[in-house]
Design goal:
Layout (H helix, E strand, L loop, with lengths): L1 E5 L2 E3 L5 E8 L7 E7 L6 E6 L6 E3 L7 E6 L4 E6 L8 E8 L14 E2 L3 E5 L2
Parallel strand pairs: 2-11
Antiparallel strand pairs: 1-3, 3-8, 4-5, 4-9, 5-6, 7-8, 9-10, 9-11
């Protein structure tokens, strides 16, 4: 039973990346999913989440509409499409899942299952 985050890499400012979070050993379809990030020297912060029960999506204000969370139930995978990336988006990105309701506007990191993280570096 694990979550696997992938898709990180080096991208220039203004570029795009699509992160994936794939579950093995359990079904993500009925879980709340969250994306979080932690930049060097900073605390972890919530980026986005998707509520399974009501299909609500929430985003951190600092994103200004640049990121989109989505699911592919057939692939048991959740995505984070990141557009117009900025150097300040550089961080390790983590996905998290929970069968209980965890997704809210506050983007709290109270999930019980976490992926290992994938590094996103935005630099010219």
């Amino acid at each position: 039973v694990q979550l696997q985050a992938s898709g990180g890499g080096l991208v220039q400012p203004g570029g795009s990346l699509k992160l994936s979070c794939t579950a093995s050993g359990f079904n993500l379809a009925y879980d709340d999913i969250g994306w979080f990030r932690q930049a060097p020297g900073k605390e972890r912060e919530g980026v986005s989440c998707n509520s399974s029960a009501i299909d609500a999506r929430y985003y951190a204000d600092f994103l200004e509409g640049r990121f989109t969370i989505s699911r592919d139930k057939a692939k048991n995978t959740v995505y984070l499409q990141m557009n117009n990336l900025k150097p300040e988006d550089t961080a390790i990105y983590y996905c998290a899942a929970d069968s209980l309701m965890r997704c809210s506007r506050e983007l709290r990191g109270t999930y019980r299952r976490w992926g290992q993280g994938t590094l996103v570096t935005v630099s010219s």
